[in-house]
Amino acid sequence: MLGLKKLGLVRSAIIGTLLVGASFNSSATTSEDYEKALRAYNVSEYDEAYIHLKNSLQKDPENLAAKILMGRILLINGYLVAAEQEFTEALSMGADINLLAEPLGNTWLFLNKYKDITEFNQTEKLSGENRRDWLQITATACVRLEDLLCAKREYSKILNDYPTHVPAMNGLASIALQQDNPDLARNYINRAEAVDSENAITWRLKGQLAYLEGDTQSATEFLQQALTFNREDPIALRNLVDLYLQAKDYDRARLFVAEIIEDTPNDPLAILLNSWLESREADEIIDNEKLEQLNEFMAQLSPELIASQPMLLYISGLTNFFNNNMEKAAKDFTSYLQQESDDIQAVMMLSQVYLATQQYKQALILLEKHQTALLENPESALILGDLFIRQNKAFKAERLLQRLELRYPDNAKLQLFKIKLMAARGKQQEALAILDNSFEQNKSNSSFLFAYSLMHLQAQDFEKSLLGAQLLTEMFPDEAEVYNLQAGILIRQGELEEAKRAIEKALSLNPTLFPAKFNLAATYSRLGDIDKSNTLVEELLTLSPQHIETLLLKAFNAARQGQNNEAKQLYLDILVISPANVAARQRLVTVYQNEGDLSTALYHLDRLLKDNFDNPDYLLDKASIQISMRLQNEAQKTLNIVQNFIAGDAPRLVKFSNLNLQLGNDEQALDAIHEAQKAAPNSHFIALSRVRLLLQLDKQTEAEALLN
């Protein structure tokens, strides 16, 4: 047995009556076993009841009362398929539908068989409360199918027969909230409260209504009241803690969760949230004792049970996320959002999973779909903004920024984002100048320092990038992450031994910091110690078997060791896990190009262009490969396209010039190098490149004029 008594998730959903009054023609040889089972069931001794029922059914497999009671016990303990079999067999053997509808309906709910519920056609003989309970189950199935019209119809049928039935009024209020109809929701909530002023779900809905109307103080009070009536309502608990977190009232959130844990020490959601809150202190990663306890809870549950309960899916997603099981976390959050599509916290968690696995396109699609909701939290909205920039959609980032500035005109992080956007639009030097001019008055601002450090790193100004990182280490001397940032800069700078020391410092503060271990593996790789790098790679892959960056490093190491076939297979494996992974496909292009397999290189480059058709680097690389394959006409077409995307971009204009020269387009080559020099007038390299080109084209007079 699964021992679900601790969780209280399944049993609370079973609302039917006991089988005290059931009377069937059971044989005399089984009646005693059945009576013993029934007595045990009525005092919640389910294991004992199960044993007596097995004896009864062995003696008489057609004992309908025993079969139905067996189904109920199997349902309580989470054996859903077996419970369904008992109920359907009893129904086919002629059992009274009034004794079966409610437990069978709940079983189908847990099994996600919502269509089976809405299409069930043997309910005409249901009467009284049994009919009411079936309508409630059907309404729930309709909600899960996102058929709110159907759900409203079923709830309304209940109220026609039972005008004071609170669950139906709560159901209609919930639908009204989903449809952004606060007045209708308030009407149903008030009616429900007039009937039962201590109904936990009604108070939770009051809290959600207050939140919808922007009254977070009342929302908090109502949710607290809901939890006084039902401490085990996971939705109210999470709504309340989310309010505390949104208000950045972490101390109050922590105290509240501690109170829940004191009342119910084994409450899995409270344990998880407590671990989450502790993790915000950054003193330890969330693989602590409480998370392990939560893992034990989740391990007891069948996949069917987890899939049947949205809150279990949410918890499963979070535990998998914190355990670095990103693939499972993505599946859990995706399944959860299919049932709770507007849960913005789950949306953000799924986006974090996508970002951790470099599935930037999926993260962008997800967050862009919820862009309006993200505007309520500028930090979340700026994650979307960063994705717009990463995916070369600066115009969308600009539009998002404008909407945010209307709401939050004095938000400093928006000003930092504006600078990043400026750099993305080709004005990197101007953006860096703004950062440099603002440095003195902002050098105690951690957000500014992160942006300062990272943007100078992108510009390969390692001295200033390190300055920002150094100030962060002085500001947060016990934060492993800032030393890891410092190490990342040193790695890019080629200062590998110094980078190794910074990583070792990070790991001394947090021995389990995954990114630091990865950076150490990457550093060993660059130092040429492939064996040590591979040892760490295998350790990292044990913790997270499908961590994309680690798999990329493993493939890179294989290529360094001359194992090109293994490297190519690893890159292809990465693309199976993450079909949109850009880095893997880019490296495949390079590997095939280096091997002289230009056709395959071109195939993978076209796949990159399919998702990013206006990427100038891909287009320039494509033209280069086409020239190598002597596909001059195709190369010319590609260059005609890329010309539209490189105006004012000096490095790309230089490459564009060289490719035109290879095609014999001398004038286009000269025009491009001239444009490059105008874009970067202080670049000696570009000036010399222009002189060299003029000499190559026998334009000596113009070349001498430039030199003079």
TrEMBL record:
This is PEP-CTERM system TPR-repeat protein PrsT. The keyword Nucleotide-binding does not apply. The keyword Repeat applies. It comes from Alteromonas australica. Keywords: Repeat, Signal, TPR repeat. InterPro entries: TPR-like_helical_dom_sf, TPR_2, TPR_rpt. Residues 1-28 form the signal peptide. TPR repeats lie at residues 480-513, 514-547.
